[in-house]
Amino acid sequence: MPSPPRIVLIGAGSAVFGPSSLATLVRSECLRGSELWLVDIDEPGLATMARLAEMITEAWGTGTDIHATTQLREALPEADLVVVSVQVSPREE
Questions:
Q1: Top-level CATH class of 20-81?
Q2: Rounded to whole angstroms, how far apart are CA atoms 41 and 29?
């Protein structure tokens, strides 16, 4: 049996993209039991999304293994799928 996919979500700490991205990935039948790495430079936002991911995983019984880090080099090796969703601040004129 193949190992579960390793998914990396870059920009996971965003209150704009984070919750909907988490829900979409975690509820997907074909991704059940996957290893989900949440990556963001915003440590407080990342911690919040990691707690939310744990709650969703437990409530929905998906068996997703949740990891959170600020280090891309920790999350990217052996990734099967990488999702990037970052918000760029408006440019000041």
A1: alpha beta
A2: 29
